[in-house]
Amino acid sequence: MLVIIGGDAAGMSAASQVRRLQPATDILVFERGPHTSFSA
Amino acid sequence: MNINVQTRHEVTAIDPEKQKVLVNNLHSAIEYWQNYDQLLIATGARPVRPPLEGIDSRNIYDVNNLVNGSLLKQALAEQQPKTAVIVGGGYIGLEMAEALQMRGLKITMIQRNVQVMPTLDPDMGERLGRALREKGIDLHVNETVQGFEHKDGLAFAVTTDKGTIPCDLIILGLGVTPNSELAANAGIPLGPKGSIRVNDLQQTETPNIWAAGDCAQSYHLVSRKPVHAAMGTVANKQGRIAGMNLGGQYAAFPGVVGTAITKFMDTECARTGLNEREIKALGLHYSIGLIEGHTLPRYYPGSSKICVKVLAEKGSGRLLGVQIVGGRGSAKRIDIAATALHAGFSLEDLLYLDLSYAPPFAGVWDPIVIAARMALKEG
Description:
heterodimer; A: alpha+beta; two-stranded parallel sheet; 32% helix; globular; B: alpha/beta; FAD/NAD(P)-binding domain; 4 domains; five-stranded antiparallel sheet; 9 helices; 31% strand
């Protein structure tokens, strides 16, 4: 289980990279705000 | 992408021993612990808000994300403010000055340093300051904000060490600070300006915990020191590096050279590497090449003025930094310098670069190359 704190540029870049490399890994992103990745 | 994203969920604590995080569901206010095998901290940075009288007034805005950007836009439409004070003449301040002036507001900008854009040297910042004044911005330099006069939750004037400036709206552009408290409370070591200390792979010093983006430090390739570089470009790259390593590959982030670019109306500015203040702080001796030229051959229509400043180490000739202020077509040239800094170029390496030339694009000698030649003459 990969947990990511923060769903903006760095967090979502990392999440999508891991997903491409490892289709089966569980990825869970916690974002405090109402939006993810508005600038990425 | 099959990524489980929980918005409105705030992580309030990390337990690195038990490998779990405390999550607060902001919808329901329910708290729970979530286990992890690997944890990436990508908490970003937040605008600096000094504890001044009246700073919590509703019409004092940060502009760092979609939520407060749209709040500001809504306030502009509903309240029709006529005057704005922008506190801070950096990237945010400059861009907001442009945006608000285009909407018809009368702008006062307050900068506590000797010039706007303190990441430029004062002589280059002064060129930008002149452009702001020419376009009708009331620019106050060497002036420090002390508080905000307010009534019923709304600020109506900014007080400084030099006077009082009435206004309808206030924008803060005072830089950012990393959101690293979560990491610090978990015992994860911090680096420059409170950013989270990481290695080139984006690993913190705590097992199975990684950090990337505006909350994390970078390595500066020119100063050869760790630095906090809160830039969207860096965040995307560090996130990608962390993701590759977490995904079972190997990737290392080479570092940054401190490149940045912005504009106000027709005046562009950019910088990369170190400025004079930063070079002096390292104790290095340097030479300066400064030129005023044109973006295109002067006979060609659409040419604009450009000023380039090149800084290089005495003796070795190692390129240390470049700054540009000029008209359209000026600032993006900084990428030549950024590439040269990555490659560890000396002034001599710059002189005979095979750069593109045709009159619609550039002169035969690019202004950066001419400035490098001037610096070389100086030794």
